[in-house]
Amino acid sequence: MIRPTTPDDTTALIAIADAIGFEPNELEELSEMLSDYFGGDSDGDRFWITDDDNGPVGVAYCEPERMTDRTWNLQLIAIRPDRQGQGRGATLLRYVEQTLTARGGRVLLVETSGLPDFERTRAFYAKSGYEKEARIRDFYAQGVDKVVFRKVLNAA
């Protein structure tokens, strides 16, 4: 069941991020983002959703791109490794797209690493109808490119 994320999900969501390979500094940043979001220091447009199956097994976080016309960025989508390959990521992504379409969203961007370890992730976005829009060399670190995918939403 996909539902809005609650403060009680925080520990499980950080565990999901840890399980998929987030670095310690990234886990700390994620914890701060969740704390800010639930502490009221929140832009009312951004949102967190959780895939719950007797406890959180997936998460997505999306926010509008500043100074754009209805362009959104999917900052995080993750499924617990033992639940990957079951269609949960695709379902969560479709839910995000439907939510944004209902809000009048125009474009959704997703960003990922250009490293070989992320080939499966890039294939997932391509299979989900996203077009590779850009590659920013050495973005995350020397030799670690950022690959940006784009999808036009069918806004009402």
TrEMBL record:
<dbReference type="GO" id="GO:0016747">
    <property type="term" value="F:acyltransferase activity, transferring groups other than amino-acyl groups"/>
</dbReference>
<keyword id="KW-0012">Acyltransferase</keyword>
<dbReference type="InterPro" id="IPR016181">
    <property type="entry name" value="Acyl_CoA_acyltransferase"/>
</dbReference>
<dbReference type="InterPro" id="IPR000182">
    <property type="entry name" value="GNAT_dom"/>
</dbReference>
<dbReference type="InterPro" id="IPR050832">
    <property type="entry name" value="Bact_Acetyltransf"/>
</dbReference>
<dbReference type="Pfam" id="PF13508">
    <property type="entry name" value="Acetyltransf_7"/>
</dbReference>
<keyword id="KW-0808">Transferase</keyword>
<feature type="domain" description="N-acetyltransferase">
    <location>
        <begin position="1"/>
        <end position="154"/>
    </location>
</feature>
<protein>
    <submittedName>
        <fullName>GNAT family N-acetyltransferase</fullName>
    </submittedName>
</protein>
